[in-house]
Amino acid sequence: MSQIEESIEVDVPVSVAYNQWTQFEDFPQFMDGVERIEQRTPTLTHWTTNVHGVKREFDAAVTEQIPDERVAWTTVEGEVHQAGVVTFHRLGDTHTKIMLQLDHDPHGIADTVGDKLGFVRRQAKGDLERFKTFIESRGTATGAWRGEV
Asked: Which of 17, 51, 92, 148 has the highest Cβ tally under 10 A?
């Protein structure tokens, strides 16, 4: 099991960063290798990924959600085994720190080798950087789900 921690600061209010993060179907716009996410219920998503030609599908469940503070999840079915939490920290009226903690259990030899070479860590860091570019260029979220889990 790999444990990854990454963070980034974004120049938007905490509510904007949080609201955008709750828009799972928009993740392919900034997450490399994510082809599609289907929101099946308020707490269940179905993911289709394609990383270096390896296509996978899996379901993930939101296990905790507190508006403007955190979103936690775990995979519940499929070939990917991970759990994580994203927390949002107000640094000012228009400045937010986003922290990602991810537990990733590599599946198969390719995942194990990629994990040992730091691929998952680099992917997480790149996804956060692309999220920063995405949300700062918009200045507003594409939607919001402010329910609690």
From this structure: 17
